[in-house]
Write a structure and sequence with these properties.
By secondary structure, this protein is an all-alpha fold. It is built from 2 helices and no strands. Helix 1 crosses helix 2. The chain is flat. The model has no long low-confidence stretch (mean pLDDT 85).
């Protein structure tokens, strides 16, 4: 069980670093808002994070 938690944490950190490298600080803010919104079951915060991420993805495409 601890091995699975370590692997999941490593994947999350890797994804966070990828977002920061590709989309900068705004990507990290959006990712954190989305994560906090999902964990807290707060649709407002999660929605704001999701919208920012979608805007960043649309801008780079």
């Amino acid at each position: 069980m601890p091995l699975i938690a370590i692997v999941v944490a490593a994947l999350a950190i890797g994804f966070e670093q990828l977002v920061q490298w590709k989309y900068g600080p705004m990507g990290i803010i959006a990712f954190v808002a989305l994560s906090v919104g999902i964990k807290a079951k707060n649709t407002m915060i999660g929605g704001v994070g999701a919208v920012i991420l979608v805007m960043l993805l649309a801008q780079s495409g």
